[in-house]
Amino acid sequence: MTLAEARDAIRAKKISSKELTGAFVKAIEGARPLNAFLTEAGEQAMLAADAADRRIAEGKMGALEGLPLAIKDLFCTKGTRTTAASKILGNFVPPYESTVTQNLWDAGAVMLGKTNLDEFAMGSSNETSAFGPVFNPWRAAGSNVNLVPGGSSGGSATAVAADLCLAATGTDTGGSIRQPAAVSGHVGLKPTYGRCSRFGIVAFASSLDQAGPMTKTVRDAAIMLKTMASVDPKDSTSVDVAVPDYEKLLEGGIKGLRVGIPKEYRIDGAPAEIDALWTKGADWLKAQGAEIVEVSLPHTKYALPTYYIVAPAEASSNLARYDGVKFGYRAPGVHDITELYERSRGEGFGAEVQRRILIGTYVLSAGYYDAYYSRAQKLRTLIKRDFEQAFEKCDVLLTPTTPGPAFGVGAKTADPVEMYLQDVFTVTVNLAGLPGISVPAGLTPTGLPLGLQLIGKAFDEATLLRAAQAVETAADFKAKPANWWSV
Amino acid sequence: MSAAATKNKLIQGETGDWEVVIGMEVHAQVLSQSKLFSGASTQFGAEPNSQVSFIDAGFPGMLPVINEKCVEQAVRTGLGLKAQINLRSIFDRKNYFYPDLPQGYQISQYKDPIVGEGEVTIDLKDGESIRVGIERLHLEQDAGKSLHDQHPDSSFVDLNRSGIALMEIVTKPHMRTSEEAAAFLKKLRAIVRYLGTCDGNMDEGSMRADVNVSVCRPGGYEEFRKTGSFKTLGTRCEIKNVNSMRFIAQAVEYEARRQIEILEGGGKISQETRLFDSRQGETRSMRSKEEAHDYRYFPDPDLLPLELEQAWVDAIKKTLPELPDEKKARFMSQGLSAYDASVLVAERELADFYEELAKGVDAKAAANWLNNEVLGRLNRDGLSITEVPVSAAANNAIIQMVADKTISGKIAKDLLDIVWKEGGDPRQVVESRGLKQVTDTGAIDAAIEAVIAANPDKVEEVKAKPKLAAWFVGQVMKQTGGKANPAAVNAALKTRLNLPEEG
After folding, report:
1. Does residue A484 belong to any structural domain of this protein?
2. What Rg value do the Cα atoms of chain A yield, rounded?
3. What number is the ipTM of this complex?
4. pLDDT digits (tens, 9 = 90+) for A268-288
5. A241 assigned to some structural domain
6. Would you tell me which of A52, A115, A282, B488 could form a disulfide with A155, CB atoms 3.0–4.6 Å apart?
7. Domain boundaries, position A86
């Protein structure tokens, strides 16, 4: 059932929020082997559903009234443990609510629980979580090998793919919504930087982080975004641009839409099926009246190195507050402040987080700042300009979302650079602050989902969603993973 | 600067003369209701950790939001320092670990401060005025406070200060003596207090100074001023957190002597940060340049560049009060000496008191009255001008009564003593106690007759020695209990005793 279908059923009083929520609570309990949730909030969800049903009975309906959602455990939720999948936050229970989730609850939505993720959202496979990996519901045909759901929003991706919720929230710093959505066979939207407030979201890289929906359909993404987005006086980087009714704006088709194909995204060594799917996507759009234009984003090859300077630099500073002094994990039996820092952070952070803190500290250090951080900022400007120039010739860009399908758990953990390459098509969008969406578009020969990415102009999510819906319609992606996990 | 003026700024060493060069970094706490990036209160003296928002405590997901009032205060201060206001400035993160720094970084301004170059004029005791260049002013957050004396083996942290807005005001190395350094801080304090941008309360830590001291051979400083090159100056040491005018003077004196001794002994000064120990009156090494933190400054991605509109700055400019220098010039144009004027403008409250006290009376007389009578009594009683028991208006009434001869100067002082102790309206006190000066010629004549009758011998004497008239004046004044108008007594005596006109 999609979010839109559930909403319509509730409005038509064909189903109650309690019935709906109860079914998901049960499904979540039955899907524990997937490890998608770090905190199940079944009881709380049933109470919220009950309250929603009362409001529905009184005719006071919010946009998402009674609809159960899964929340990435990077959003602070008042009174509910928030971990960022890190040991260092320990049993931190925020006394405040993130703006994005508050917007959802204000619209009547119900929280089912908090989903697993890569520690502090640093990873592309959900394997850096301090609470163990999440498994992708999808498996290759005839294989019993557990696959990763992508990352960092791996728990949310699996929750959507395995029907453990109607929709989920994610955050995307370098591809953390779009990549897991692509390899888990559903829709993931990263809005324009500043579209959703970052207040109350545990920060990874402040200039790149952006919250967005992970949904079963493009329409559902449009519905979710409408509620999640807002200008927020508590976030100076949120932008005061009117939030339109994205769902309504899905209508009208794509006749005359100019779709850019960036030639630099054709990379050596990418599987042939990726290229083939990309060409197919262009054909689908053309068939619906779009005009296909080739464009150039010449600085694309610098995007990944730029990202792996900017993001760790900001992270090294953002994560300095986890020091064992005020909240979260503190190493036992320490004797002085240096030991308190070293051991609390050494024991509290996982290897990947420590790696990025080290990289970030290094690139900001005296003597290295100009060579790394400063140059990365210049490259970021050039990458942004690439997009501005490309958008003079087109309205949206079409690219693959990932260089390949979901891979096996443990397959890429030995070489961090190979893992970083997962984001080669997605990081550019974060660096430029643009909206991007991944739409499920096909299956590999072994039956694993692949996505296509569309990139839009800043704050033009409406056009982006319309184009995404055109891909969705043409792809007619109906495949579902076989349920192997139910206990 | 004249050669003579330079000469008296030298310090004599064993091997010859030395020059001292001083620069300062002053941290001034912005007067505002709430903190730089949060809504928490800035009230001094509250219970530990009672004025801390989740932002100040560095909780996950918290974001800073700039407080417009603090920006306005920084701009206002910049204008008061005759400085350039930068319409675009950037907040950076200064990264370091300390338990009282909850985010693990301090939000500050590094490469692009909100205020650029300006200047402060200071007046020295010998009448010389010098201009101290201001390098920059930037906004930054204060840290919390570590408490190490509350528990045998734990330290506590109070975050009430965490996030409070500070202005860091950096001077150029334009001061040459401990007197100049102290005078600068005093003047800066007066300016921010006039502006209402900092309460200047050094006891509560609202104003703290880091003092940079170096020494060089004579001529080195002048060369530096000419070329702008630091090569002709010595290696500097920074003395941290000196929190009174007196300590600044002491710290500079001690540090200059220390450096001279090292250099004369053939040693070298190593650039370092030092602490001033006010009990021992000496500076001590805190950390060397090698041990200096690498703060890894970078622009804070949570905050947009701070962009100001010229019209907004202009509007603030229009609301600036008259500042000490302008006030001093105005007072001097009203007839006060440079010295009197500079004493009066040093504190805004004093200047305001003076202005009210001087309304409609002679400026010089008012200044003398304030300096000699009011300040003398305040000093005696250990009170500040804000605690003065007799209002400016009441003092003004006393001065007016002297001017229009209602009372004599002598009675005026007695009157001030009465209202100082007992309160009351001076005019009513004059009425009720009969302190009014007697100009009634009948009463004066009667007193004269009484004095003449009692001293026939003196009447003869005065005819030969007219200077003896003063003795008669004194006697008549005594007779009238000091209330007689001395001029009227003089005139009446001259007529009665047939004395010649002056000459």
Report:
1. no
2. 21
3. 0.96
4. 888 899 999 999 999 999 999
5. no
6. A115
7. 1-236+251-479
